[in-house]
Specification:
The chain has helices at 10-20, 51-61, 71-76, 78-84, 98-101, 103-112, 126-133, 159-171, 239-259, 292-299, 304-312, 351-355, 391-404, 418-424, and strands spanning 2-7, 27-32, 42-43, 65-68, 89-90, 120-123, 140-144, 153-156, 182-186, 191-199, 204-206, 211-212, 215-217, 221-224, 229-233, 266-275, 278-285, 327-334, 360-364, 367-370, 373-376, 380-388. The longest helix is centred in the middle third of the chain and has 21 residues, at 239-259. The strands form six sheets. A five-stranded parallel sheet has the order 3-2-1-4-5, sandwiched between helices. It has a five-stranded antiparallel sheet with strand order 12-15-18-22-19. Strands 6-9-7-8 form a four-stranded antiparallel sheet, with helices on both faces. Helix 1 (10-20) packs parallel to helix 10 (292-299) and helix 7 (126-133) packs antiparallel against helix 8 (159-171). It is of the alpha+beta class and 431 residues long. The structure holds adenosine monophosphate (AMP) and glycine.
């Protein structure tokens, strides 16, 4: 069986790695891929913003299954376009992917279906925003409506700051493009959990929970990023809490989308805040998380390809998932300066020594092969992932492997998993 994956990040490296392990796979192709994915897949160049180009690649490859990784091609309607051409494709349609691509759509959907989420207002102008802000107490969250690669959310400590953020988003000063709509939202306090589910549009199967670390600085300080590290243990969510989330959030979301004639097939990533009044939806993503996927797939024992195919064929209810007990973690190494400006093109050393540590996998994000050498080519460069019996051991392996890797300007957080380790009373060792 031939599988084509669209994407170029650590998430797609993990998907390619997991899919390539399936005994039924004969070939994995990735478009456009990266320096690490080249080790497990044949790469085909394409731009992830070029819908026609991606369709041409998929039609030429005629894979038995196509998997769409990132949000941009989903929001452009790549799944719809490939379905029209008779291809089997894993991922939501453009209409279903609006759960991620439009925050106002997601918030109204949540409200229509009585799914717990922060109080909010949708504003189409600065005048509307000014009126809405009066109804909120600081801190106030101001969000761009559309996709913004994690940069479209501003947490404001006063009404005045909220108004400035709204102005910055409407005028294009903050994101470079002028927003047409904003969501203004109540600030929620609690721990964040990434709860990813697979769904065939009807049945919903939860994956193991994960916790991301979105801020660039240790102690969760500084700017938001795409994610600087993640861990997964079953203890992130007690079984009763997981069932509560399935019953009150995950299944009602999938049922609601089906009722509204936009059945959602693919990965439903539910970003949750565990607040004093229970879990609340912070956001939906219509795709696998990055770096959550790297940690989650390291714990998956059953066949990922089987599960993805079952989603596309509407038979997920009959698919069993087997998970490694214990824990996994993925620590991201980024280019110095990220999420601001940074330089690329630096050679990366120590990758083989890192991967030789038992239980460790190195997943590439922003890397490229230049003259036969792996070099940096993006902000988040690579993720070092490890699985073990305990979180302490998984983190120790990941950090031991990270110490082997180096490139000019390399940065990584040394406190991934700190909340879980503090709770369990474990010590992160020498870090
Ligand atoms: P989003 O893209 O909506 O998930 O927002 C990105 C990040 O901003 C989240 O992962 C949270 O850390 C933070 N955030 C978003 N909305 C809220 C909120 N209502 N209250 C507190 N933090 C939030
Ligand atoms: N790690 C957060 C995301 O994938 O959106």
């Amino acid at each position: 069986m031939k599988v084509l994956i669209f994407g170029s990040g650590g998430r797609e490296h993990a998907l390619a790695w997991a899919i390539a392990r399936s005994p039924r796979v004969t070939e994995v192709v990735c478009a456009p891929g990266n320096g690490g994915i080249a080790q497990v897949a044949r790469l085909v160049p394409v731009s992830l913003s070029d819908l026609d180009g991606m369709v041409q690649v998929a039609v030429a490859e005629q894979a038995d299954l196509t998997v769409v990784g990132p949000e941009l091609p989903l929001s452009l309607g790549l799944v719809d376009a490939l379905q029209l051409r008779g291809l089997k494709v894993f991922g939501p349609t453009k209409a279903a992917a609006m759960l991620e691509s439009s925050k106002s759509f997601a918030k109204r959907f949540l409200q229509r279906h009585k799914i717990p989420t922060a109080n909010y207002a949708v504003c189409k102008s600065l005048v509307e925003a000014e009126k809405a802000i009066e109804f909120f107490h600081a801190p106030i969250v101001v969000k761009a409506d559309g996709l913004a690669a994690g940069k479209g959310v501003v947490i404001c400590q006063s009404r005045r700051a909220a108004l400035e953020a709204a102005q910055g988003l409407f005028t294009g000063k903050l994101l470079g493009s002028q927003e047409q709509q904003l969501v203004i939202e109540e600030f929620l306090v609690g721990e964040e959990v990434s709860f990813l589910c697979l769904t065939d549009g009807n049945h919903v199967s939860p994956l193991v929970p994960a916790q991301d670390h979105k801020r660039i600085g240790e102690g969760d300080t500084g700017s938001n990023t795409g994610g600087m590290g993640v861990y997964s243990t079953d203890s992130i969510l007690e079984p009763e809490m997981q069932e509560w989330i399935m019953h009150h959030i995950a299944r009602p979301t999938v049922r609601g989308m089906a009722q509204e004639d936009s059945p959602f097939v693919g990965v439903l990533y539910i970003g949750l805040m565990m607040t004093a009044r229970g879990p609340q939806v912070l956001e939906f993503n219509a795709r696998f998380g990055d770096p959550e996927t790297q940690a989650i797939l390291l714990r998956l024992e059953s066949d990922l390809l089987e599960a993805l195919e079952a989603c596309v064929e509407g038979r997920l209810a009959k698919t069993e998932f087997r998970w490694k007990p214990g824990a996994s973690a993925c620590v991201i190494a980024s280019s110095g300066g990220y999420p601001g400006s940074f330089q690329t093109g630096f050679a990366i050393s120590g990758l083989e020594d890192a991967a030789a540590i038992p239980g460790v996998q190195v997943f590439h994000s922003g890397t490229a092969m230049v003259d036969g050498k792996v070099c940096t080519s993006g902000g988040r460069v690579l993720g070092v992932a490890a699985a073990s019996d305990t979180l302490t051991e998984a983190l120790e392996s990941a950090y031991r492997a990270m110490e082997k890797i180096s490139f000019a300007g390399m940065y990584f957080r040394r406190d991934i998993g700190h909340r879980a380790l503090n709770k369990s009373g474990s010590r992160p060792g020498s870090r």
